[in-house]
Amino acid sequence: MDFQVIFTVLFATFVTANSLKQGECEVCIKVLDKFASTLSEKVKKDPKLIETEFRDFCKNTRNKENRFCYYLGGLEESATGILGEMSKPLSWSMPSDKICEKLKKKDAQICELRYDVEIDLKTVDLKKLKVRDLKKIINDWGEDCQGCIEKSEFIQRIEELKHKHTEL
């Protein structure tokens, strides 16, 4: 067998084994794209400024995006910090998926984050949802349900707030 053929096969195997699969690192890619779009050209070239801006950006994140910030070290309560692994490649204009691929090697949890499936409140029967899902809807809206214990109370609260948080 020709040496060049063997090399090509090995290289192709290596590249596909290390590249991200479809849907992998979805939170990482989306957050980095969203964050990068907020940066000025001056900030985009300086890793230290990128890190400062990322910490500010993380103050307004919630749910999975907030967890992503925690893993990277963008929050005050973050136990560790690998912001440099994000800021340097970002300053070189590396694409988000490639940055996430590098971050995955440092901390696999980063790419294990997945967005929750959105519930379509126009078509869903709230009575068929679990209380956990009803609580999540209220929490995602940044609201609370003081004194709610029964499923019917959570449903009633969602019905009260629905007009405020959805476009009908």
What do you see in this structure?
The protein has 168 residues and is mainly α. It has ten helices and no strands. The chain has helices at residues 3-18, 26-36, 41-44, 47-58, 63-72, 83-91, 96-106, 109-112, 131-140, 151-165. The longest helix has 16 residues, at 3-18. It starts with a helix and ends with a helix. Residues 9-17 have low confidence and may be disordered.
What keyword list fits this structure?
10 helices; 61% helix; mainly alpha
Rg of Cα set: 21 Å
Mean pLDDT: 87
Stretches with pLDDT under 50, minimum 5 residues: 9-17
- Assembly category: single chain
Question: Main sheet?
Answer: none
| Secondary structure tally: strands | 0
From the N-terminal CA to the C-terminal CA, the straight-line distance is 65 Å
State the helix count.
10
Question: H/E order of the elements?
Answer: HHHHHHHHHH
Outline type: elongated
Helix content: 55-70%
Beta-sheet strand percentage? under 5%
Structural class, from helix and strand content? mainly alpha
